[in-house]
Amino acid sequence: MEQPEGKERFLLEAAAAPRQTGPALDSCEASPDEGLIEDLAVVDKKAVEQLTEGLISHYLPDLRRSKLALQELTQNQVVLLDTLEQEISKFRECNSILDINALFSEAKHYHSKLVNIRKEMMMLHEKTSKLKKRALKLQQKRQKEELEREQQREKELEREKQLTAKPARRT
């Protein structure tokens, strides 16, 4: 243990020295509290001042070190909070990148759907074109058949006309 110096040593010596409170007290003479109040008034001011200074000088270096340690800890906490905020922003960026990736995959999915729909539409267009051509050919064939039937009827009518008896002309 360290040896006390200065005020601390004085305070320890003052506390260890026997105090005399006036004339010696015999058991039959006076009460034990008789001279105590006067001694307290004299010792009290000096002792309180010296004890206070000793107490302050004893604890003040530790308190200053504690204050510095707390200030350093507070600075470290501020740095840590800043770093933590930066990390949080990085995580938010990662989440937004994941969201962007999800959007791209969704866009790719819908693009493939669109390509499939386009292929189906082109196939349907080709089928309808073929059906239109076929319908046109059928219509032309029917018209041709009708025309041929009409011509056949006309020929038959003409033939019947020619076959019908004509009255001879009288001259």
From TrEMBL:
Disordered: annotated segments: 133-171
Family listed: Belongs to the BLOC1S6 family.
Coiled coil: none
Annotated function: Component of the BLOC-1 complex, a complex that is required for normal biogenesis of lysosome-related organelles (LRO), such as platelet dense granules and melanosomes. In concert with the AP-3 complex, the BLOC-1 complex is required to target membrane protein cargos into vesicles assembled at cell bodies for delivery into neurites and nerve terminals. The BLOC-1 complex, in association with SNARE proteins, is also proposed to be involved in neurite extension. May play a role in intracellular vesicle trafficking, particularly in the vesicle-docking and fusion process.
GO cellular component, one term: focal adhesion
Subcellular location: Cytoplasm
Gene Ontology biological process terms in this record: actin filament bundle assembly; adenosine metabolic process; anterograde synaptic vesicle transport; ATP metabolic process; blood coagulation; bradykinin biosynthetic process; cellular response to epidermal growth factor stimulus; cilium assembly
Basic and acidic residues bias locations: 142-163
Originating organism: Chelonoidis abingdonii
Entry protein name: Biogenesis of lysosome-related organelles complex 1 subunit 6
Lineage, opening ranks: Eukaryota, Metazoa, Chordata, Craniata, Vertebrata
Keywords: Cytoplasm
A molecular function (GO) term: molecular adaptor activity
